[in-house]
Structures are given as structure tokens and as C-alpha cells.
Amino acid sequence: MPQPGTPSADAGRIVVTDLSKQFKNVLAVNRLSFTVEPGSVTGFLGPNGAGKTTTLRMLLGLIQPTGGTATIGGQRYSALHDPLRLVGAALEASSFHPARTGRNHLRIYCAAAGLPDRRADEVLDLVGLGNAGKRKVRGYSMGMRQRLGLAATLLGDPRVLILDEPANGLDPEGIRWLRGFFTQLASEGRTVLVSSHQLAEIQAVADRVVILNRGTLVRSGSIAELTAGQDSVIVRGPNLEPLLPALASAGGTGQRPDANTVEVRGLDLAQIGHLAFTSNVELHELSERRFDLEQLFFSLTQGEYTGQSMGAAPVGPMGGTPSLGQGGTPPAGYQQPPGYQAPPPGYAPPGYAQPGYTPEAGR
Hints:
By secondary structure, the protein is an alpha/beta fold. The protein contains eleven helices and 14 strands. It folds into two domains: 213 residues, P-loop containing nucleotide triphosphate hydrolases (Rossmann fold); 62 residues, 2-Layer Sandwich (Alpha-Beta Plaits), CATH 3.30.70.
């Protein structure tokens, strides 16, 4: 039987059950449940204000939940006997004393945790800062500071890593390194939970994703599971009208982004190509569009803070596409938003050279 405060045999498994957090009139997290397994990289995704950071802070015991539980290895974080050796976490940009070297910054953590000083040099080498450890932090770039923060999370050789936006400030080489580093950690049986807005990088490295919106779980699972059956085929040509009935009869569904394009689901490239041939329809493009993590994310979370697209025509059904007025003018019946005031006559933005306009004319 494990001793009190000691992680159980499933150390490394993160379990969130019916977790909720109420801040006065704001329900930041609402009965959230998910599991993160050891030996995997899990992307923790959601728009700003979705409740991601609040959830991670409850998981790490930084704030108390209103209801539910969040455990690591079957224990609340506050009950872990030696948390630094089980969990490494970096939720926000770390504050470093600018006059202290990266190595000395880590050695302070080592002293506090009872770790040998040599561990600071070991983790600096792990994150690629071995040659910069003796430099003062004031001379570090943002990407180097990110690596230093990651090094701090690795001091205790933890089984669980919980990271918030770890790729911020990294250059392309650093992002590629981070991708491989996460994969290596997971291959060693560690648990990696990464909150990020860089969807392409999450798709490249994550085994599973957990997607939140407005404090509620909207989807979780592997990316392959969540995007299955959502791929489409782009069909483009000068006159697609004769092809539309054939596509519908064969079970295809889709939409028309513009008059010369159809995005079809339910049929593959070969089927659509054959239907175009038998319908005597000229094609200029026939290509597959993969439904990726970015499309999945926006399909589940778009809405509350979405601004109006500038210059993009609304997408219509397969039978037609709504359009804006000709010449860039608003469509018939358009009204200015409430409170809108037109600029004064002769107004031009600073630096804009309006034909026939002089500063004196605008006074």
C-alpha cells in the first residue's frame, strides 16, 4: 500500500473529473472531465477565455476549484510528497533576474529542492543552453528565456510536464527542436500536457487533443479520430453546372465558395473525375483537402469573439453563392452600424496621399 502523500502506481496519469470554477458572476470552468495518459503528448486547446489556464492552475493547486477534482498520479498536487520530482510546470512567462546567469537561476531552484548543483548544467545542456549558462539573463532572447523556463521544469526529472505556450518566441529551428523533445519525453513514458495556440505544431506532435470552449469540454480524442470523414475534394472549372446533379445523385454533398468552385464531401477523387468525364465537364482543378486540426478547432470554437471578415464573400450552398455589391460597394439594403459617424470632408489618414488633397484644403 502506498504511503500517504506518495504517488500511486499510475503516477503520471492526469485525471480531471467534473472540475468547475466560479469567479463571482463568471463560470470559468464548467464540470470539465478528461484524462491524460502517460507516454503521450496531449494538446490542450481553446480560444482565449476558454478556461485553459484556470484549469491548469487548479490542477497545480494554485487556485481552489468550486467543485470536482484534478489529480496527478491519483493525488491532488498539494498532497504530493515531492512534487518537483513528479511534476514540472511552466504556466506563464517566467521572471528571471536580469543580472543573474541562467545557471545561477537554476542553481537556486536546485538548492530549494535539495538537488545537486550539477543538475542545473545537465538541464541547460538538454534544452540547448549549455554554452549560454554563464551569460546573464538580460542578454537572453525571448526564445532563450523560453528554453530556460523549460529547463527549470526539468530539474526534478519529472514524470509529468505541464506547459503553457512553450513555443512562444522560438525560431523555426527551436520549434522543430521542441517538437522532437516532446516526442522523446513521451517515448520515455512521461506525460506531456501542452496548452498552445500554435495548432500546426500541436497537430505535428500531439497524440491526443482536449478542446475547450467557454469553460466546457467540446471534444477530446486523437486527431485522426476527431477529423475522420471530414476530408473534402476541391473541384474547379469554368462551367460546373452540368456536374452538380451528377454529384448529388452519387451521394456527394458540398458547398460552392464561388461560381467556379465546388467543395465536395462523400465522394473521392476518382469518383468525381469519372462523373466529370461522363458529364462532359471541363475541370481545371481536382484536389483533395485534408480536414486538419485548425479546421476542427474553428468549427468547434468559432463564434463569440469572431470578427466580420473583410472582403470575403459568404459561403453559399451548392446551388449558389451570395455576393457583395459590384465594384466593392455594400449590397442593397446595407446600413451603417449604430453610432457610426462618417469622417469629415477632406479627411485622410496620416501619411495617405489622397489625389488633389493638400493639408491646407483639409483645414
